[in-house]
Amino acid sequence: MDVEKWLEQLHVQAGPDDPIRAVHWTEARPARYRDVSPPLLPAVQQALERRGIHQLYVHQALAIEHARAGRHVAVATETASGKSLAYHVPVLEALLMDPRATALYLFPTKALAQDQLRTLLELLEALGPGAVRGRRQHGAAVAGTYDGDTPPDQRKQLREYGRVLLTNPDMLHAGMLGHHVAWGAFWRGLRYVAVDEMHVYRGLFGSHVANVLRRLQRVARHWGASPVFVLCSATIGNPREMASRLIGQPVELVDEDGSPRGRRCMILWNPPRVGHPPARRSANLEAADLMSRLVADGIPTIAFGRARVVAELLYRYTRERLERLAPSRANRIAAYRGGYLAAERREIERRLFQGELLGVCSTSALELGIDVGALEAAILVGYPGSIASVRQQAGRAGRKQETGLAVLVAHESPVDQYLANHPEYLWGRASEPGVLDPDNPQVILGHLRAAAYELPLSPQELDRFGPHAGAVLRLLVEGGDLFWDGRTWRWKGSGYPAGAFGLRTASEATYTIMEAERPGAPGGRVIGSLDEPSAFFQLHPEAAYLHEGETFVVDRLDLEAKVAWVRRQGVDYFTQAVAEQRVRPVVEAGPLLARRIPGGTAQFGDAVVTQLVYMFKKVRFESRDSLGWGRVELPPTEIYTNALALTPDPGAVAAVTAMGAQPVDALWGVANAVVGVLPLFAGCDGPDVGAVVDTGPAGGPAVYVYDRHPGGAGFARQAFEAVEPLVRAARDLVARCPCESGCPSCVGAPLPPSSQTDPDTTARGRVPDKAAALRLLEALLEPAAARVAEPGEAAGLPPPGPPPAATPDGGKEGERIPVPPPVMGPPLPADLEVRLRRQLERMRRFADRRAAGGREGAMAAPPAGR
Fold this sequence. Notes:
The protein is of the alpha/beta class. The protein has 25 helices and 30 strands. The strands form six sheets. Strands 1-9-16-15-12-14-13 form a seven-stranded mixed beta sheet, with helices on both faces. It folds into five domains: 3-27 and 261-428, P-loop containing nucleotide triphosphate hydrolases (Rossmann fold), CATH 3.40.50.300; 42-254, P-loop containing nucleotide triphosphate hydrolases (Rossmann fold, 3-Layer(aba) Sandwich); 441-503 and 819-851, no CATH class; 510-571, no CATH class; 579-616 and 626-781, no CATH class. Helix 11 packs across helix 12. Helices cover 33% and strands 21% of the residues.
């Protein structure tokens, strides 16, 4: 692609309101190679050469040497730098040298597993027919994907004969480890475990995955194996630390990228102002114009939207433009997002890889390392929320030595407009670090149950599950899940414990989307699926649902059967749901914990976060004109979770008012800054926590920081325990930020739009007042701030003090259920123990419902009043 010529044409056509705000070039670099010592097996070397690989890059060779030597290794290099060879090559050598050797590949998505299976099968084919045989039988399956889409007969064949298994952490957790006896030969021969796209395993999901890997290593040791881990990642700020946290062992880091890179150009594009009063033109329309022009010129392009509806709108708008500009290419683009059927996604991936498609409009689903062919341009519709994601998405274009183009099209949101005026923020920032907390007691509870089901737990193994494992184990013994046989703790509970909880944040409830002339009519066909929160936004009655650029109107949303009945109807609008969110402390569940900071009160306890979709807006395509509103009559969705309430004293609020600012503006700035620094104090990721400004427990305004996971995940509690250092860190973040009035790095980081909304049609509000937020943060830390009550007095709470002694549910003070030695470790705080007991009870109820054929979710909220 001749980017300079294309840029020149854009400048000429732009006119006086040139949308190009900044252009940043990254210069090309040559490849750097290195020989592997000792040399590769001749058969592997020849197979690589048959695939056009005659030399290995520096990072590939170093990683292979570490893996061969039995050292765990983390490879952190750019997108499309050939990281997968770091595990493919050692695995191929092991398969050739040892007929019993096996390998396990873990990917966060099924699409990635399918993509890497194709690469692996090509390498196996290049080795020559019969060079690698399946276990116990010549010609049996050597490699395959083992996930929810794998047919039963193929699962059986892979279990009995497979040498390389490609799966995801969810299937490993719920489908393999608990049945490891059936996989005995596979585990006995396990030599390598590849963990690809490591940067995805952040926050609560990453904490769960780290515990799955702890369990994997237990099972491998039981069968006499000690596999080497090869972890790969792009765009992460702390690869060595994160890899070590994931597997619980030291790792070697390889981050010297030897792959070649062509020149890359990144453009920051701010849509022009149009209309009266003037407003910026839709980022979706600007992106569709850019994409249609690129595709019409034959330039393979990918466009990323932050929401599913954006991917569909981009596809529709781009296709309409191509029907005028280049009709022969209108059918060479596609939309790609979650909610499509598996067969649809596989077909789009195939067409991309084989070059049948010239363009794809996607959510972040294609941000990961799927080989999407030789793309030359990437369009990012809105700031995706992190520097890491910007680099990951932009890196999908211009792979290898070709010149690549990336265009970030700004929305009219405050964060995007800040970037449009401060483009150096994009070029000069390092990628964000990944954080996780594998030792979180609310995470290890389920994994200790699953581990004991898989194999008896010995006292020596408890340390592998962190410092709280002994105290959590005590609860499991008291509750009758485990018993001591004199040497180990063994499982005696009911059900299948790994099936009682999931690893991700998605809702357990999934709605099927059925196309039919009328609800329940025969001959209907399934066109997709959505999780429950998304369904309430996109599939309420009268919603216009977009699928592959076509519009379907929802006739009925059946909440009991979890089916949305839709019919194809060519309306000229889409719909935008409107919702409100509230937080209510559940004081009836027990007294809130409270502690003072100089200028306010921090309280922690159970809370209900309620979200209600109550109306929708009809928005005309292209013009974004409002065509009217409609009511939505759906029940509110509630998450029973934990929250920190940070309530400023009246004197702290008065300090903000005295400077002529609005307290609510300051509170939102504090909320954004506190959530921004919380990963420094808790092993959470952005989607793990939420922040809301609402009425506090004592009646005044408060900032709530809550866990987004049913039952809580421990992050809000960690924020409570470190509340004063947390507020101080937020104050320092805002004070030291060089911006004048607020930016994405301090107070101006509103939560990104959910996966159901389009930023073009969503009211975003302005960046909170930096000066007001800073004044409130300082007042919260000032001893001189007006003090109106002792901690807890205004809310009717007990003053802070040492936590009460923990007792079993229903027991009297001082009673203990005997726990056999040698359970070690300090006791848990009383309130945390109560929450773990509730979490345990939910898991047991789930097992009972499943045994009775129930389909209710694993994490249903406890009854009101608990």
